């Protein structure tokens, strides 16, 4: 029998082992760890191969530890607890045992991007408090950052030169129309779009962007309504009052009565994180900036805005 090489064992495998033991189900463990069920299955199978033992009985009743599995789960928990203690001590040394991070964002990013980031951040740094200010216009975001009432802002327009910014997400503009129209294609032509009264956002930055975009059409466009609230725009589209044009994030969750269609020519808004260039940030703020940059790398590699 070959000796087990402990250097092949991974912390991620131990986390998965403990999660499956806690939930007695591969699917539930996957949801808890925010990874795919196939990743759970692969990790457990690999761990069983490396250890040379069966860790779980699989069946209709879920995944139940074998006797040797029970014996190995306990030390796995201890290893993870020791690892967490190391992280706590390291964070304390870096000044991350407390503090606050203040964020300011426009509404749809605050609704669909920040909750995921904040939850991830708070799991890593449970003693750091996170505050969020939600506004409509970008000039409000920049003003709040200048006044030091917030540390980090999420914006979707180019910033003033006094700010440093970087892309974290690309958000596609889409058209919402009633499904009862039974349109067969996923992308509208200019001629098709011109058939409908248009329902746009009344927020200045959004309205200007769409109006400038529509100037590229040779068709005459009828801007019938401009409403401040995304929910109002969506309700009007449901009632058949026109074609709503919104960023995809602002449209979520899309009601089942509406179909989602691409514009004749793709249009995106680039969502960025912004900070004052010369601001003196605390360790807590730098830690949240690292979380944002990690999210940016994942978003760029997966392009979730295109497929969702």
Outline the structure in words.
With 308 residues, the protein is of the alpha/beta class. The chain has three domains: 6-93, Winged helix-like DNA-binding domain superfamily/Winged helix DNA-binding domain (Arc Repressor Mutant, subunit A, Orthogonal Bundle); 100-169 and 270-307, D-Maltodextrin-Binding Protein, domain 2, CATH 3.40.190.10; 172-268, Periplasmic binding protein-like II (D-Maltodextrin-Binding Protein, domain 2). The protein contains 13 helices and eleven strands. Helix 9 links the parallel strand 7 (198-201) and strand 8 (223-227). It is flat, with a radius of gyration of 25 Å. The protein starts with 10 loop residues before the first helix and ends with a helix. This is Putative HTH-type transcriptional regulator LrrA. InterPro entries: HTH-type_LysR_regulators, LysR_HTH_N, LysR_subst-bd, WH-like_DNA-bd_sf, WH_DNA-bd_sf. It holds the Pfam family LysR_substrate. Belongs to the LysR transcriptional regulatory family.
The helicity comes to 40-55%
Number of domains: 3
Class of the largest domain in CATH? Alpha Beta
Structural category is alpha/beta
Number of helices: 13
What is the average per-residue confidence, as pLDDT, rounded to a whole number? 88
Percent in strands: 15-25%
Number of strands: 11
Q: Which parts are unreliable, with pLDDT below 50 for 5 consecutive residues or more?
A: 302-308
Termini Cα gap:
49 Å
Main β-sheet description: 9 strands, mixed
Indicate the CATH topology of the largest domain: D-Maltodextrin-Binding Protein, domain 2
CATH superfamily of the largest domain: Periplasmic binding protein-like II
Shape: flat
Write down the oligomeric state: single chain
Q: Calculate Rg over CA atoms.
A: 25 Å
Sequence of secondary-structure elements: HHHEEHEHHEHEEHEHEHEHEEHH
**CATH A-level architecture of the largest domain:** 3-Layer(aba) Sandwich
């Amino acid at each position: 029998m070959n000796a087990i090489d402990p250097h092949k064992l991974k912390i991620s495998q131990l986390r998965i082992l403990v999660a499956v033991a806690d939930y007695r189900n591969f699917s539930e463990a996957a949801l808890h760890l925010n990874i795919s069920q196939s990743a759970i299955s692969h990790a457990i199978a690999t761990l069983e191969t490396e250890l040379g033992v069966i860790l779980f009985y699989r069946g209709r009743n879920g995944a139940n530890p074998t006797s040797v599995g029970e014996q190995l789960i306990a030390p796995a928990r201890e290893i993870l607890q020791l690892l967490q203690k190391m992280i706590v001590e390291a964070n304390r040394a870096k000044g991350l045992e407390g503090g606050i991070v203040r964020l300011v964002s426009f509404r749809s990013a605050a609704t669909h991007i920040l909750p995921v980031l904040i939850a991830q951040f708070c799991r890593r740094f449970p003693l750091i408090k996170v505050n969020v200010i939600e506004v409509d216009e970008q000039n409000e975001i920049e003003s709040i950052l200048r006044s030091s009432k917030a540390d980090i802002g999420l914006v979707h327009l180019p910033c003033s030169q006094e700010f440093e910014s970087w892309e974290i997400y690309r958000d596609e503009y889409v058209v919402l129309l009633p499904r009862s129209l039974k349109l067969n294609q996923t992308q509208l032509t200019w001629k098709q779009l011109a058939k409908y009264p248009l329902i746009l956002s009344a927020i200045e930055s959004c309205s200007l962007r769409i109006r400038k975009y529509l100037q590229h059409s040779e068709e005459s466009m009828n801007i019938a309504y401009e409403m401040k609230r995304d929910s109002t725009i969506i309700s009007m589209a449901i009632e058949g009052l026109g074609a709503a044009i919104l960023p995809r994030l602002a449209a979520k969750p899309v009601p089942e009565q509406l179909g989602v269609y691409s514009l004749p020519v793709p249009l995106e808004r680039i969502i960025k994180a912004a900070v004052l260039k010369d601001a003196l940030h605390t360790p807590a703020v730098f830690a949240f900036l690292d979380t944002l940059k990690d999210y940016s790398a994942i978003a760029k590699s997966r392009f979730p805005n295109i497929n969702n």
